[in-house]
Specification:
The protein has no helices and eleven strands. The protein is an all-beta fold.
Length: about 120
Amino acid sequence: QVQLVESGGGLVQAGGSLRLSCAASGSIFRINAMGWFRQAPGKQRDLVASFTSVGSTSYADSVKGRFTISRDNAKNTVYLQMNSLKPEDTAVYYCNAKIRLDDGLRYLKNYWGQGTQVTVSS
């Protein structure tokens, strides 16, 4: 089955930058959509940035102008470049993908990574 593995989280000072990566592996026919969510303690898991099923990008208002999502389709990998980080960005960041498996079916299944911690100090 499909696995999503995130990397690139860590501790950074306010104003700094981090680059997150998420690689999908498995018998994948097509990735329909892929993106990043985040969840701070006691808060809801919210969409940060994503590629939609038609290839357009979407960003949360709180990160527009600071974060950039990109992808490498050949590697089934999505990236999140995070610049001008703020303490409010501190959260666990989760990769998410809607994937059709290479199994002859046309069922889109939602997959989640394990999450990577991003901590921004003031």
